[in-house]
Batch of 2 targets.
Target 1
Amino acid sequence: GENVEQHPSTLSVQEGDSAVIKCTYSDSASNYFPWYKQELGKGPQLIIDIRSNVGEKKDQRIAVTLNKTAKHFSLHITETQPEDSAVYFCAASMAPGDMRFGAGTRLTVKP
Amino acid sequence: DAGVTQSPTHLIKTRGQQVTLRCSPKSGHDTVSWYQQALGQGPQFIFQYYEEEERQRGNFPDRFSGHQFPNYSSELNVNALLLGDSALYLCASRSIVGSEQYFGPGTRLTVT
């Protein structure tokens, strides 16, 4: 089955800096790659996603890149703000099948 | 538009007991998946329901069972609770023709 690895497990940046989180997946049949943000005591919130026929997608300060050949994808957050502090999860699936998640990255943005 | 809702918010049970968790999907969604999230870990897929049938199942024992109703809402049942079942249980919904999946706030289950 699908295995998703996520790095780093913790990330601390200064407000205004960029943050990058990387994930790799094992199943070449996976075709949908979402990113979720989870704040304390809440469920994961979908923040951006990318499909296998696209190499890059951007939404304001957030962007995701996908390299299907290497089977890895990354989340880029620019101009970080304290409210970006949370745990971020990557996931992979062969939609609409089950979704496999990475272990998460705890991002801290220091003011 | 209400998103995914779950009840109860918190639950405390004793080892060996049984528990039922409930989920209402986002409007327009017909597929419900359940996940278990242990502290400090990513969500682990339990199973997925569509058209009132279990369509896919993750690596969870038969003590975990579910149901989907005609209005697309769903229940997760766990029998013979173990201490290790303590976790946040998340419900997520999507349309069978789409990819985007949205999560509810979760039910925090504590087994003592």
Target 2
Amino acid sequence: AQSVAQPEDQVNVAEGNPLTVKCTYSVSGNPYLFWYVQYPNRGLQFLLKYITGDNLVKGSYGFEAEFNKSQTSFHLKKPSALVSDSALYFCAVTDSGYALNFGKGTSLLVTP
Amino acid sequence: GAVVSQHPSRVICKSGTSVKIECRSLDFQATTMFWYRQFPKQSLMLMATSNEGSKATYEQGVEKDKFLINHASLTLSTLTVTSAHPEDSSFYICSAQLIAGPYNEQFFGPGTRLTVL
């Protein structure tokens, strides 16, 4: 079985400050981890993924995430938040290359 | 590359009618496509896995006779919501799987907003 936990329903951060959106996972095999962003009434946009290799993954729009096997975490980070980063963020996992299991989502609000 | 389209983007229908949603992989072939459903401010829930040339695999609790899936070609999967009711109103998102490397990555369509009156 596989699952993803995003413990925060909402994250608020001031523009220019660093942001972190948390994600922890549970899988039986090797995890393949993803972050997606969703704007209102839109589909998912891919941000970044961890498949193998370097634990620090850099993605689109200045986002990055660190794979931490011991803590089973894959937190999304950005050094300096923009108002335009305000959106719904989903963490997802699979261990089989099969369908993704999504977290419940975290709403990010960046205030000017 | 790896673009997935959905049509229509929005549809409003009367209760009891059927609605077809198309999912196309525009620049790659996809033997497997997935259909997800998303309620407002909630996560995506996998409904079914669509396999080209064979029957779809439905997740537990999803009525296969209500949500008909046809994967007619390597670039097209359709989801038909039959005898739609207001509770079927939702955001439907498809993804297409690209086979490349150790992981078969999914690419998502822009979604279809279904409103049943």
